[in-house]
Structures are given as C-alpha cells and as structure tokens.
Amino acid sequence: MRYAIISDIHANLEALEATVEDLQTVQVDQVICLGDIVGYYPNPNECTAICRSQGFRCLRGNHDDAALGLCDIDDFNPVAREALIWTARALKEENKEWLRQLPEKLLVDGNFLAVHGSPWDPYAYIFSSGGALRAFSYMHTHHPEIDICFFGHTHQRALYTSEKGTVQENYKGKLYILSNRGLYLINPGSIGQPRDGQPGASYIIYDSQTREVEFRHVPYDISLTQRKVAAAKLPLMLAERLSLGY
Questions:
Q1: Are strands 2-6 and 30-33 parallel, antiparallel or unpaired?
Q2: Where is the Calcineurin-like phosphoesterase domain (predicted)?
C-alpha cells in the first residue's frame, strides 16, 4: 500500500488544493490526515468538505476539538483563540458532526500508528529526542506489533529512530528506506502552516511494501490565502507567517 500522510491543514484551502493536485501525480492508495483540519485560516468548511469527499482517513486534532467545544479554548494563545472563535461560528453543523466522530488515533491496516500529538496524549508535543524516547517506550508497551508512528502537531518535519535504546533524530533530506530494526517516529510537517522555515505545504508518501518514506514539498498561492485572512478579519500575524514558514 502507498499512503499519503498529511497533517495540520488548518483551513488553508489553497495549500490543501495544491496538495490534492500533487497527490494525483504520485498514485497513492489512501490518504491519512493526522488532524487539525480546521483552525487559523479562513476555509474550514471547504477543507472539511475536501477531506470528506476525497475519502481521507482523518484524526481529530486539538484545534478541531477546540472548534467543537471538546477542549478548553483558554489553553490556546490569543491569536489561536481568536481564530478558533471565528472558526466555531463559521463551521457548518454538518461539518462539525463529521469532525466530532473522528478518532484521536488510528492503527492503520496493521502497518503503522497515526496520532496527532503523541502516542500517549493527542495534545502533547514531540520536539526532542526526550519526547521521542517517551513515544518509543509507549509504542513498545502498548503497540508492540508495529514499529512506525506518524505524528503531527508541531508543524515541523522530523524523523526519529530508536535502536537498542538509543534515540536519534535523522531528518536530513527527502527520501528514506526504513530498516526492519528499531522503531520510527515520523512527522510530515504541515499542509497549512509550516514552522520549519520552508513556506509551502509539506507531506509524506509512505510505501508499506518497500518501506520507503518520501518527504514532499508543494508550493501554492500564499498571497491568495493572505488576502483571504485579511478579508475575514483574522489576525494578520497568521497571514505574515505563511511567507516565512514559521
């Protein structure tokens, strides 16, 4: 099976549409979305509709939960809170219902674990080898049958490996062949709001037969998204950061 692993769309329609167009060139069997379909940007209904119509297998992220009232909005920074209040008002009820029924994690076809934040907590961040070590320990205890976990939430591409108790961060390029030794923790980056210094949409292709992982980067019309942010009277910081990739 060839999977596309996407995450953190954040209602950025232009980024999602460009990604869907790119997906048509790489022939995948299934798209897995690691959550945060909505939040921040001005097209929550359109992005949700694409995920639904395309048959993506999706998780709920923390921004999805907040827009649905499933977690405390006060836990978010002021810019995120303002965008989430706007999103909660803008979302159609049918899309809220669809988002509400999404799971927090998935064990996909017995091949890998898919989570939003971390294997042990959907809201936890993994930014370092320490967080990765905790994730590997959880995988070893609770999911001994799998050796790969895809996670999102940080908006930063990452690839951690664990072998014989040693954790290494190995993200250095765009193409990897995973061995059958050790465990892997892999972040595809963000579709809608990158935070690794590279403007554009980022996602992964994973082939479960060859165990090849390809990080893909897709440009899109950032200026159009920025104009829509301004028109919706969302915080302008959200528009500015798209050009910086932070």
A1: parallel
A2: 1-210
